[in-house]
């Protein structure tokens, strides 16, 4: 009975892996490239106009599925969301959908391997784990705000620590807001970029929009979050020390 239960806990991860494998086997990722979406932009605009209020809802559902199955096309979809719906609607839709998708991955990873790995952690690694858990909100916020870390990795990593679900959801939603709204805002003015790349005869890429300056700006925001976390740790330590001295 115990063995059967332990096998069932891997089912969500198996579903995610199977979904990702199926998507690649069917070549679905080829239809979610920047070049392909750019080529179909007029068709997409027509469909958005036809569907009305249902369009952003369907877009959000697709985004949630893409996030849950770890397809590496989230940035492209965010840009085109901004183009199709405007940066405000797209930003809110993406933030909510990405948070739901990421949370599903987190829960799947936690149920499958989280508890088992935590029970085997000892020594210095255990101390690092406790430090992460004590400052989980700030650490996760920094990881989310830093564009250097793959989104899927940050989805799974907290499952290896004792991170509360509410903390994970809050830091995911808040942490992805700067990058999400930046890409959505850029997507709102994508026409000029598409015209420029088409004039050169080459297929457009996400790099045509996401410049090094934007990456540096987002990294700067993450560094500010690091500074805030450091100040909080310092203030907590100072307050604790004063309380100990008073006793």
Domain unit count: 1
Alpha-carbon distance between the termini?
53 Å
**Which band does the percent of strand residues land in?**
under 5%
What is the radius of gyration computed over CA atoms, rounded to a whole number of angstroms?
Answer: 21 Å
Low-confidence stretches: 121-128
Q: What structural class should be given to the helix and strand makeup?
A: mainly alpha
Query: What count of helical segments does DSSP give?
Result: 13
Number of strands: 0
> Mean pLDDT across all residues, rounded?
74
| Main β sheet profile | none
What does the model show?
This protein is 79% helix and 0% strand. The protein is mainly alpha-helical and 247 residues long. The protein has one domain.
Write the layout of secondary structure elements.
Elements: H1 2-8, H2 11-25, H3 34-39, H4 41-51, H5 54-68, H6 74-85, H7 87-118, H8 123-134, H9 136-145, H10 151-156, H11 165-188, H12 190-200, H13 212-246
Helix pairs in contact: 2-7, 5-6, 5-7, 6-7, 6-11, 7-11, 9-11, 9-13
Q: What is shown here, in short?
A:
The chain is an all-alpha fold. The chain has helices at 2-8, 11-25, 34-39, 41-51, 54-68, 74-85, 87-118, 123-134, 136-145, 151-156, 165-188, 190-200, 212-246. The longest helix has 35 residues, at 212-246.
